[in-house]
Amino acid sequence: MRDYEKYIRYRTFPSPWCPGCGIGVTLKAIATAFAELDLDPDDIVAVSGIGCSGRMPTFFNTNTLHTTHGRALTFATGIKLARPDKNVIVISGDGDSSAIGGNHLIHAARRNIGIKMILINNGIYGMTGGQVSPLTPQKFVTETTPFGNIEPKFNIADLLMGAGATFVARETVNRMKPLKDVIKKSFLHKGFSVVEVISNCHVNLGRRNKMKDPISMTKWIAGRTVTKTQYDKMTPEEQDHKYPVGLIHENTSRLEYSELYYKHIVPAAQEAAKKGPGGAAFAAQKNTITYRGSK
Amino acid sequence: MEDTKKKNRKVLQGNIIVAEAAIAAGCDFFAGYPITPSSEVAQHMSKELPKRGYDFIQMEDEIASLGACIGASLAGKKVLTATSGPGFSLMQEHLGMGVMAEIPLVIVNVMRGGPSTGLPTKPAQADIMQARWGTHGDHPIIVLYPAFSNELFCETIRAFNLAEKFWTPVIILLDEVTAKAHEDIELPDTKDLEIYNGKTKEIKDLNIYDRNIGENPPRVDFFQGYPIHIDGLEHDAHGWPSSDPENADKMQKLRMQKIYHFLDEIIKFNEYYMEDAEIMVFSFGVSARAALPAVEEARELGIKAGLFQALTIWPFPKRELRERFKKIKKVLVVELNMGQIKYEMERVASDDVEKKSLLRANGIPFTPKEILEKIKEF
């Protein structure tokens, strides 16, 4: 048994993904990162919303939670605040995180809550049959843009940095080792981290845009992959068609949300309570944090 | 004796009573979003929870609030959120997730006039049906509806106990009037309270939802030694997604019957002057508070009226009412809406029971006099 297999829940296979889908590659990259960090499966919780990528946690032999469309980050926020000692991972697609879940994405970034997000961007709503998403490139034909997409896509990395994210990286499913390495690096980051994974959906996006097999679609991704240094030298028009990969932004100076809560809010509230009426009685009280089952 | 009585006697706002009761019940996580007339619950929790080392967070909207509550509940916390009609509408999808995945949750909905932004923030008993059927799909739900200040305290404790015992969302409906008013209350000694702390299942395999109908507890939480899967999809005994019709049928029945097998424990009501009553006034919340003096005045006039005040509004006290309708043949439903429970009463009371209703949704609560006039119409 290879190291990463400890983190795979074989009993729930087969997966719902089409042959050649990049989500499987991402699944292995995440599991390998778990293995290389030697995490206890019970110390991990993987949370997801709805969509093709939303089905991924089912296949992790860790604690897993499959929730509602776009809201995975809200559930993860509750778990992280309740159990700051655990590794809380969110796996989300582009529609799930940037359309219906866009509000939660910017607020998780603003709070800098210690959730590790893997944002699988295949530029389409795959599970519902291929409708346009906020990350679909312009001019692409989808089921709901039969004459081409006229809306510009989000630059999700810029959006996250604007919202205050402290770790933003991008990789593609073509580059397995760098992908695994950057996911591993993000797991070691204390605050909110996002790794955008550029993936292929040849079935629902490629097929309608002259890239009907995984090879042509991954070649298309490879053609748009540039390093950050190369990207920075490009004109805005050129940049629009490229995906800079690697670590894009990292800030380790900001405290993580739950750390800040327990370091600042809890002592401040306790101090105020001691000074208030019945303060002595309060100081004598002992409140321990308990969990259901341990109570 | 006298001293302790005085010490526990306070004048508190209804919202604060609910927050205090939640803390007494062991609530250690609150996530919410501001909305009048419920915001005082969140405000009070933001002071009280951190000083005990517990969690408070104001989320970006009501959807996120209930999401965070579900997450924390799965991590083993006793959770509360508080909102009002429009926010409660936003919570409906996650309420369904709470039912499906069997998550203990307590949601306070301080109702206000609707639909939409409606009459902010005038009283209305507007969300009786939203609480029952707001989320999509077939589901059981427990909805409690306290009216008097001591009930606000006791029913909040009971809501947590029921949520922990039956692994289900429990909704507390409150009136704008009782939530905002400052009232006299004698807080019970914390030692006298019966607090039920949920236990988690002891499992040998990963079959976390495997049980017989009516058996509790149904499952384990996260981080208890063996990784589990929790899903909003219909799932099998392992919690893994399954669309098998036979399994779906079984799981649907398990969820329904874990509530409907325990109606005696869940259904609670108060009766006033009902022993020899010929006219039953059926009401709840602030309307019941107006109906009580109306019934008393009717008695003084020689009219044999009684009040049935529902504390558990869902599941509806159908069996208890049918028992009473064997003798009582006149019923008056008093509710501050356009007739949400009136229709429920039409289903429950047989044709030989004369039914009347006093309905209104203009933001003005009923006076005892108005109810008395209606009683006189029988």
Question: Describe it for me?
Answer:
- The complex is a heterodimer of chains A (295) and B (378).
- Chain A has 295 residues and is an alpha/beta fold.
- Chain A has 2 domains: 3-254, Thiamin diphosphate (ThDP)-binding fold, Pyr/PP domains (Rossmann fold, 3-Layer(aba) Sandwich); 255-295, no CATH class.
- In chain A, 39% of the residues lie in helices and 16% in strands.
- The longest helix of chain A has 19 residues, at 257-275.
- Chain A is globular.
- Chain B is built from 15 helices and 15 strands.
- Chain B has a 7-stranded mixed beta sheet with strand order 3-2-4-5-7-6-13, with helices on both faces. A 5-stranded mixed beta sheet of chain B has the order 10-12-11-14-15, with helices on both faces. Chain B has a two-stranded antiparallel ribbon with strand order 1-8.
- In chain B, helix 2 runs parallel beside helix 3, helix 2 runs parallel beside helix 8 (149-166) and helix 4 (62-74) runs parallel beside helix 6.
- Chain B is globular, with a radius of gyration of 21 Å.
- At the A-B interface, strand 1, strand 2, helix 2, helix 4 and helix 11 of A face helix 3, strand 3, helix 4, helix 6 and strand 9 of B.
Class from helix and strand fractions of chain A: alpha/beta
Name of the CATH first level of the largest domain in chain B? Alpha Beta
Number of helices of chain B: 15
Q: Biggest sheet of chain A, open or closed, and with what strands and sense?
A: 8 strands, mixed
Query: How many distinct beta strands of chain B?
Result: 15
Shape of chain A: globular
Could you say which overall geometry of chain B the principal axes of the C-alpha atoms support?
globular
Largest two-chain interface: A-B, 54 and 59 residues
How widely separated are the two ends of chain B?
Answer: 48 Å
Q: What's the CATH first level of the largest domain in chain A?
A: Alpha Beta
State the distance separating the first and last CA atoms of chain A: 38 Å
Strand order of the largest sheet of chain B: 3-2-4-5-7-6-13
Give the tally of structural domains of chain B. 2
Q: What CATH architecture of the largest domain in chain A do you see?
A: 3-Layer(aba) Sandwich
CATH architecture of the largest domain in chain B: 3-Layer(aba) Sandwich
